[in-house]
Amino acid sequence: MFLNKAKYLEYIRDPEQIIVMRKILDKIEKVLKNHEVVYSDFLDPYQRRLSYSILNRFSDLNYFEEGGLEEAERKSIIIYPFYLNKEDIENPISSIEITGNFRRRLSHRDYLGSILGLGIKREKIGDIYLHDDFAQIVLHRDILDFVKLHLNKVGNQNVYVEEISLGEIKQGVTEYIEKNITVSSLRVDNVISTVYNISRSKCLMYFNQNRVKVNWEPIRQPFHLVDETDLISVKGEGRFLIYKNLGKTKKGRHKLIIKIYV
Fold first, then answer.
1. Which residues make up the CATH 3.30.1370.160 domain(s) of the chain?
2. What CA–CA distance (Å, rounded) separates 48 from 50?
3. What's this model's pTM, rounded to 2 decimal places?
4. What are the RNA-binding S4 domain coordinates in residue numbering (predicted)?
C-alpha cells in the first residue's frame, strides 16, 4: 500500500516539518502494508500535534506516545495495527542514569553534547533530567547498549552509565535566570531582542534562517505576537519563558518577567 503523501502534507508550510511528517507517513505505510509495530523519532509537542492530525485519518491503526514521564517534552509515537493490544507491545523506549565524582555541576548541554559526540542523532534522545549529583536520560532502546559501552566522559569528567527502568525517572531540576524587562510591544522580535540584548537586524536574521520557535512551532514572522506562558526558543541563543505579563507602565510599555533557561 502506497500513500498519496502530498495529500497529507499540503497544509504544512515549514520544510523541516514536512520532512518529519514524511517519516511519519513512511511509518504508517509499514504498519498498513507489513502489519509491523513501528515507532517515531522523539518529537516535540508541535511535531506530535502535526503527527496526530495525520494519524487520526487512519482507522486501521492505533498509536500511543512514550517519553518516560507523562509531562515529558519530547516523546516517541508507537504506531501499531488496530487489532493488537497496547499491553502486548514491547516498549521501544529506555532510560539511563549517569553518575560520577563530579568536580562541577554538569549542564544539559554537557550531557547532550557528549552523547551527540558519539555520533548519535538528536532524534534518538528524549528528555534529559538533571539532579544534584546525577542525570537521567530517556532514549531509544536500540542505542542503549552503544551508549552504555561508549559514554565514559561528560564535560571531561569520568562517568558511569547504567540502565534504569522508566518508572525510576524523576522530574529534574530546571535551572533558569529570572529577568524583568519592559518592551514597547509584544512582537516576538521585540521580546527576543530585549531578552538577549541583540540588535533587531540580527534578530531578523534569525527569522530568515528559520531559527525561531514559539511553543515549539517554527515562526517566520517577526511581527508574531506573544504573551504570558509562551515558550520562545532561538537556535544559537537558547530559550526562555514569558513567565508573567505585569501589564503596562505609565508610558505604555509592557512589563514582563522572563525565565531564561540555562
1. 5-88
2. 5
3. 0.89
4. 186-247
Q: How far is CA 94 from CA 160, 165, 253, in A?
A: 17, 7, 48
Distance CA 253, CA 48 (A): 36
Specify the fold of 93-168.
Alpha-Beta Plaits (3.30.70)
Find where cell 515507532 sits.
39
- For 195-217, the pLDDT digits (tens) are 999 998 999 999 999 999 999 99
Give tens-digit pLDDT for 60-96. 999 999 999 999 999 999 999 999 999 999 999 999 9
Where does 176-261 sit in CATH, by number?
A: 3.10.290.10
Q: Determine whether 196 is exposed, middle or buried from the number of CB atoms within 10 Å of its CB (0-12, 13-18, 19+).
A: middle
pLDDT digits (tens, 9 = 90+) for 15-29: 889 999 999 999 999
Name the nearest CA neighbour of 227 among 238, 207, 241: 241
Determine the Cα–Cα distance for residues 60 and 83; give it in Å rounded to an integer. Answer: 8
Rounded distance, CA 88 to CA 35, Å?
A: 14
Residue labelled with grid coordinates 497496547:
86
- Residue ranges, comma separated, of all CATH 3.30.70.330 domains in the chain are 93-168
